[in-house]
Amino acid sequence: MSVHAGTPRNTPAETVTYHPRYMAYAAVEPLQQLTIRADHAGYLKDLTLRPGDRLRSGTPFARLIGPAITAALRQAETTLVETRRRATLAADSLRSAQRTYPAFTNRRELNAAKAAVASTHAALQQAKTALDSLRARVILRSPANGQVTALRAANGERVTPGSPILTLLPSGGLWLRAAYYGGDSQKITLGMQGRFIPADGNSPIAVRVIRKIPRYRPTAHRASGCSPYRPQPGRTVSGAASSLKAQPVKQSPCPLRP
């Protein structure tokens, strides 16, 4: 009995690139929130906002009224009228000095008239600015585009300078905090791209890793923050995740790839 070895065959190798995928649950969190405060003492009027309402930058949402504001406005207006009167008199005096110089007016008197015009003009600008500033402070406006997250005062309530009125989450001020477990979590690097899949069934949103948060206790995990990456027009992480609609922040899987 004889045994013959088979003919060797060469099988071509195929190169396969493997891209690991990481999946974790991510929560939408605000980067920071703005607390809008009163700049003057008074009573709130026309404050009809509710948590979840959206505001655009510069939009008025309430105003301040009361005896103190009325008195302050009246004083500022009176000061402006008086300052304008003095500025007019100074300008008339300067024109008169210029007409009579040098026959009846000497150089010192002419210079004094010019200095009076400059002084009253500066005082007039200051009075205008003070009145405009006071009028602006009694009309409460949103400093940025955003969403109301909490009301700190009620319509009709008396507030003092510095009193909080509402808390605003600026548009675009959200990120995702995703928790990854295991040794492979060390391989997640800044710039990796992935998808955030909202739990409410909306379309996935492209994200990328922008920060890695170190472990804060020996048995803890490593968390990675994601930010919106090339979002679709008209869509934000906030709206898609329903994170600010008077309900708990929903948890959604956030797979990442290099």
From TrEMBL:
Alphabetized InterPro entries for the sequence: MFP_Cation_Efflux (IPR051909)
Keyword Nucleus: no
Region described as Disordered: spans on this chain: 220-258
GO cellular component, one term: cell envelope
GO biological process: copper ion export; plasma membrane copper ion transport
Source organism superkingdom: Bacteria
Keyword Chloroplast: no
Keywords: Transport
Protein name as catalogued: Uncharacterized protein
Source organism phylogeny: Bacteria, Pseudomonadati, Pseudomonadota, Gammaproteobacteria, Chromatiales
